[in-house]
Specification:
Structural class: alpha/beta
Number of domains: 1
CATH superfamily: Aldolase class I
Radius of gyration: 19 Å
Shape: globular
Number of strands: 15
Number of helices: 11
CATH class: Alpha Beta
Distance between the termini: 10 Å
Helix content: 25-40%
Bound molecules: iron/sulfur cluster
Length: about 325
């Protein structure tokens, strides 16, 4: 099957709301980005979830809402929230670690939940479980099968690091067998618990490794009928750099009321908005949007500040390539 590679520019009018409804989780993955000090430890009530969702309704725009945690299925009212979001006009996704607490499949329905996304970081338990926890692979795969059997659209998210990049290609036959429709490949970031590991830089992959492996696996998955999305990361020469904070609408909501526009900023109190008394308020002072306005040779400003080791320079001190916005994606399929 011939498939086409597309850079998914930031589409005018499209909005994404990444809604962390709690930060609690039953797992402790080695690359978890949740940072309770910065994101809170609260579990939002079902009333709060609906009031906060309403803040992001815009009838003139297509808005995706992605329910996240922690583990969002640990929230006893997730099925209620999913239905409320669908009825408010959102395209609704839940990102789960695979445990599907509170009988989500039975209590929700493909009528309300457009996509159910599962996280897997390896094609078998030998690769996945050292990263995500013992027994996680079997539980997750078992629930993927059950979700597909019940008629849900299923996607899988794989976070690429030096620990699993060599096994990415083996995901393709697994996903095909499981009848997964979409595959999201992400790159590990130096955030949350990744930063606390003994040598955080070692879990990142080099530019050569990324370019050698990821586009080829994406092509193979697309040829097998799976829609693939992966971050651009290294901007090809001549392609224009754009910061999503300036040209797109993405909102990352946390249970402590912080709302960020950029995921790389989430470990710092520089959020653009704060939800207070169920109202969305613009934050004053030094906020992330000040950084979005800076133009630098290296591309993404926050990447330069937080992960400077990802950039290589020539002898004159100019970067060999720009780092793209982490929200800019390539698509195949
Ligand atoms: S990465 Fe997700 S599943 Fe893993 S510990 Fe963090 S919140 Fe839980
Ligand atoms: S990742 Fe970089 S380019 Fe993208 S929104 Fe954040 S600061 Fe802007």
């Amino acid at each position: 099957m011939k498939t086409e590679l597309r850079t998914v520019g930031f589409k005018p009018g499209e909005r994404n709301v990444f809604f962390h409804i709690l930060t609690a989780c039953n797992l402790s993955c080695s690359h978890c980005y949740i940072n309770p000090e910065q994101h809170g430890t609260q579990t939002l009530s079902k009333e709060q979830i609906v009031k906060w969702l309403v803040l992001f309704v815009d009838p003139d725009k297509d808005t995706n809402v992605i329910f996240l945690g922690g583990e969002p299925t640990m929230h006893p009212d997730l099925a209620y929230a999913v239905k409320a979001a669908k009825e408010a006009g959102f395209f609704v996704t839940v990102d789960s670690n695979g445990y599907l607490f509170h009988d989500l499949l039975k209590r929700s329905s493909p009528k309300y939940l457009d996509f159910l996304s599962f996280s897997l970081d390896g094609p078998d338990s030998l690769i996945n479980d050292p990263i995500r926890g013992e027994g996680v692979f079997d539980t997750c795969v078992g629930n993927i099968k059950e979700a597909v059997r019940q008629g849900y659209n299923v996607s899988v998210i794989y976070t690429v690091s030096s620990r699993n990049i060599d096994h990415l290609e083996r995901m393709v036959p697994l996903l095909k067998k499981l009848k997964v429709k979409k595959f999201f490949i992400q790159v590990v970031g130096l955030r949350g618990t990744s930063l606390q590991s003994a040598d955080p830089g070692k879990i990142q992959v080099s530019r050569e490794q990324w370019l050698e492996v990821v586009p080829e696996v994406a092509r193979s998955a697309a040829e097998n009928g799976i829609h693939v999305t992966y971050p651009t990361v290294f901007l090809p020469p001549g392609e224009e750099f754009q910061c999503a904070g300036n040209v797109a609408e993405n909102f990352f909501i946390f249970p402590n009321g912080r709302v960020y526009q950029c995921p790389l900023c989430e470990d710092h109190p520089i959020h653009s908005y704060q939800i207070e008394n169920d109202k969305l308020i613009k934050t004053k002072g030094l906020t992330e949007d000040r950084f979005f306005q800076l133009e630098i040779e290296e591309g993404c400003v926050m990447n330069k500040l937080l992960q400077p080791d990802t950039i290589e320079y020539d002898q004159k001190g100019h970067p060999l390539y720009k780092i793209s916005c982490c929200l800019l994606k390539q698509e195949r399929g």
